[in-house]
């Protein structure tokens, strides 16, 4: 399963901040108008989703081992000790990614979804404009002279 499809605990906050579902944000992030903040936020979100999956796997494994209807002969203190170490590492990673994502969302400039839509509409309009029959002015497209 792609990390884009894995849920994370930050999905709601990302939707609130950027104004779109996570799947749409991933599509936007690969476009030419993607903001660096969005790209970084989704990268952290991907790491967070993987760390949370690891936490859930260890939790489920411990719950299964400790199930009331489980065979006591299958219990292993060494296996549970390793699971505790694994869980601690996975929780540390999850907390680190959550903290980094929260910090990024707190410190980034406000996301202006309307300006992105305007740029997209302008690019679409420019791409679909019908060329005129009149020749272009002589200086059309000429670069401006640089000032020293």
Walk me through the structure.
- There is one protein chain.
- The chain is an all-alpha fold and about 150 residues long.
- It contains five helices and no strands.
- The N and C termini lie far apart (about 55 Å).
- The relative contact order is 0.12.
List descriptors:
elongated, mainly alpha, 5 helices, 63% helix, 148 residues
Structural class: mainly alpha
Helix content: 55-70%
Q: Which consecutive residue ranges, at least 5 long each, have pLDDT under 50?
A: 115-148
| Outline | elongated
Strand content: under 5%
Order of helices and strands: HHHHH
Distance between the termini: 55 Å
Calculate Rg over CA atoms.
25 Å
Query: Roughly what is the average pLDDT, rounded to an integer?
Result: 82
| Main sheet makeup | none
Task: Let me know the number of strands.
Answer: 0
The number of helical segments is: 5
